[in-house]
Amino acid sequence: MELARALSPRGELVLRRRDDGALELRVNGVFVMDDRETSSEELLASATLEAVRRPDRVLVGGLGLGYTVRALLADSRLGQVVVAEIEPDVVSWMRSGLVPSILDDPRVEVVVGDVRAVVTDLPDASVDAILLDVDNGPDFLVYNENSAIYSSDFLITCRTKLRAGGALTVWSSSASAALEAAVGSVFGTCDVKPVPVDLQGRPELYYVYQGSS
Question: Which one, 6, 34, 36, 198, has least CB within 10 Å?
Answer without folding.
Answer: 198
